[in-house]
Amino acid sequence: MDPALLSVRGLRKSFGNRPVLNNVGFDVRAGELVAFLGANGSGKSTTLRCVMGIAQPDAGVVAVDGDDLAKLPWRQLQEARRRTAMIFQKIHLVPRRTALDNVCAGALARIPTGRSLSPLFFPRSIQLEALDCLDRVGLADRAFERVGRLSGGQQQRVAVARALCQRADVVLADEPVSALDPHAADQVMALLHHLAHVEKLAVAAVLHQPDLALRHADRCIGLLHGTMAFDLPSSDVGPVHLDALYAPDRVAAA
Amino acid sequence: MSEETIVRGQLPVRPKQPLRWITTAAGVAAVVVLHALAIQGTGFEPGLLVDGWKGMASFVADAFPPDLSWEKTIRPGLDATLVTLWIGLLGTTFSVPFALLLAILAARTTTPHHLAYQASRAVLSFFRAVPDIVFALIFVTAVGLGPFAGVLALICHNTGVMGKLWAESMEECDSGPQEALRTAGANRIQQVANATLPMVVPQFVGLLLYRFDVNVRSSLVLGLVGAGGIGLLINQSIKSFRFDAMVTDILIVLVLIIAVDQLSAWVRRRLAA
Ligand SMILES: Nc1ncnc2c1ncn2[C@@H]1O[C@H](COP(=O)(O)OP(=O)(O)OP(=O)(O)O)[C@@H](O)[C@H]1O
Ligand SMILES: [Mg+2]
């Protein structure tokens, strides 16, 4: 079996006195696509943010390729960050810049500082690579469009392309298909599947569509009020598990 | 899910703020007292204005009709107005590099270190606190009377004001894109150049135009203390009791101010589109 590229143990996090994560732990191996499922507010985004170091967990260990991120010296931490890419729920692109420039920005860690002051100086090779990434999400023809002028779903795909251009080994995606039409959603899921199975990356995606998760993911992790409800191969996940995840909120809403 | 039980059709009790009336009353009382002190301190007395209306009337009688002779008044007026405009322009644009650097150091979201943050905040506060007219008087002792001293003075003061405004607009802008680049392994300079700055370009240009507008008007006042331009002419007209020429100069200034205002409004509209 492939080694765990991303491994998370005992993650805890509270905001004020509201506990949000309670002992969350999981592995994502190279060549594997893992789906996170859970109701709104169950802590999926917070988990990813803790892994990325955007939020500080109260306790727990995050290791990339066996290295505990909390213990890495600054240089190696920088490299570990380069190796982990995140696709954000809120997209976080620069609306005034073109799609191509936004995708190039994913590769900034590989561009010398002097050449990254303006998109005009970005190396040609990086721009070609970015165009290639845009092509993989089906947007090569809109490369020179300002991101602010693209539709929501197109922007989401540009965000995916930016993560591709980072050439990461671990890709985390927070609802990468929430704004996509069924066809585009399938296309992006197939792309994530390809990254895992063909390019041997470790891929984890938060999804609100259990059917997409069961169809594309190798493994599903269910979060319920910040605790691990299950961590099973997709083929073992049944209606019982899904009902347990989403039922509490339905009861509250009824 | 939540701790308090919510009963349907019944509004939950709002958290109480018992001291609200007392604090409001105390606030109003404080404002009234401050105004009483201020009226005393400034000798604010409308009666004086009524009694002295004759002085104003004779002044206005001297000033009208304005002196419209081309050679003696209008042409020198136009030339001097142009100088005023140039002072305002250079004072604004030449402060851009300094303001930009200090703004990046002084914005919480972009500063490399909290010491750099504190230091640049202090520098900006200093340049903002010293009025441009004081800077002008200082520079006059170095480079002599004339427009150059005015330009230097505006550069200093404008760096302080624009640096602060720019720093604030960077702090207010959505930090998501910058965070995204940080997690992708980009260093601080790369984050600022590729996320923060492109996000705030419209605000930066808007504030720049606003400062240009203000600086053209400031350079008028600087002219009064010897920095040249139309301010100097107005000062001379007053000193030699040529109030009709002064009115002509003021009309020219009025046209200039309106033109600058229209120009900056037009550019801002284009930018927003
Ligand atoms: N910065 C924050 N400050 C306070 N509370 C927060 C913060 N971020 C998240 N929370 C709380 O943490 C809980 C989990 O939020 P999180 O964003 O992780 O949910 P999620 O599973 O991603 O939900 P969704 O499906 O709606 O995206 C929520 O109750 C939320 O209110
Ligand atoms: Mg979320």
UniProtKB/TrEMBL annotation, chain A:
Q: Identify the PROSITE patterns for this entry.
A: ABC_TRANSPORTER_1, ABC_TRANSPORTER_2
Task: Note the coiled coil stretches, chain numbering.
Answer: none
Domain ABC transporter, which positions? 6-250
- Record-linked InterPro entries: AAA+_ATPase (IPR003593), ABC_transporter-like_ATP-bd (IPR003439), ABC_transporter-like_CS (IPR017871), MetN_ABC_transporter-like (IPR050086), P-loop_NTPase (IPR027417)
Q: Name one GO molecular function term.
A: ATP binding
What this protein is called in its record is: ATP-binding cassette domain-containing protein
Instruction: Cite the Pfam families for this sequence.
Output: ABC_tran
Record key words, sorted: ATP-binding, Cell membrane, Membrane, Nucleotide-binding, Translocase, Transport
Automatic annotation (TrEMBL), chain B:
Record SUPFAM superfamilies: MetI-like
Where is it located?
Cell membrane
- Report the residue ranges that make up the ABC transmembrane type-1 domain in this protein: 81-264
Q: Which family does it belong to?
A: Belongs to the binding-protein-dependent transport system permease family.
Q: Which NCBIfam families match?
A: PhnE (TIGR01097)
UniProt-listed PANTHER family: ABC TRANSPORT SYSTEM PERMEASE PROTEIN P69, PHOSPHONATES TRANSPORT SYSTEM PERMEASE PROTEIN
Protein name per the record: Phosphonate ABC transporter, permease protein PhnE
Say which species the protein is native to: Arthrobacter terricola
Lineage in the entry?
A: Bacteria, Bacillati, Actinomycetota, Actinomycetes, Micrococcales
Instruction: Name the encoding gene, please.
Output: phnE
